Amino acid sequence: MRAVIERVSSASVTVDGEVKGEIGRGLLALIGVEKGDTDKDMTYISAKITNLRIFYDESGKMNHSVKDISVGDSDAGVLMVSQFTLLGDARKGRRPSFEGAEKPERAKELFDELCESVRAEGINVEKGVFGADMKVAHVNDGPVTILLDSRKKF
C-alpha cells in the first residue's frame, strides 16, 4: 500500500460539484492499494498516518501527530482519497502501467478498512468516493509531504 501524506491547513474533495469530504487542519492522505496488499499493509499505513509527528509543538518542533492536534478541534482530521495512479509505473515508455494496482473490489475493501482503522483512533476521517472522478483541493501547510510504502520500496 502506498500513501502520499500532506500536512494541510484545509482540504476537500468534490464529486459532480458536491463536496463529499472536507477538513480544516490535518492530513490529506492519497492512498493506492497494491496487488497482494493485506491487512498487515493496511495496519502499517494506518499506524503511520495516525502517529506521524509532523505538526509543530509549542517550541516549533515537529513533535505532534494528527491525533494530538485533533483533540478538541472538530474541523481537524484526515481526508482520505483513493488514488490507484500511485501504483503507476512509468519506467518504460510514456504511458504508465497500472498493472501493480489491486483490483477495484479488493482495493475498496482495504481502503474502507484503512479509513475505519484511522477513525478508531479517535480521529475525524472524511473521504472521497472510491472510483469516482474527484476534484481534490488543499492548502499544503509547510509544505510538508511524506511518501509511505508498506513494502518499504522507498
Overall shape: it is: globular
Query: What is the quaternary state of this protein?
Result: single chain
Total count of helical runs of at least 4 residues: 3
Number of strands: 8
Q: Using the 3D structure, state the CATH architecture.
A: 3-Layer(bba) Sandwich
Largest sheet: 6 strands, mixed
Report the CATH topology name. D-tyrosyl-trna(Tyr) Deacylase, Chain: A
User: CATH class, anyone?
Assistant: Alpha Beta
Strand content: 35-45%
Task: Return the structural class.
Answer: alpha/beta
- Order of helix and strand elements from N to C terminus: EEEHEEHEHEE
The tally of domains stands at: 1
In CATH terms, the superfamily is D-tyrosyl-tRNA(Tyr) deacylase
| Separation of the first and last Cα atoms | 12 Å
Which terms would index this structure?
154 residues; alpha/beta; D-tyrosyl-trna(Tyr) Deacylase, Chain: A; 6-stranded mixed beta sheet; globular
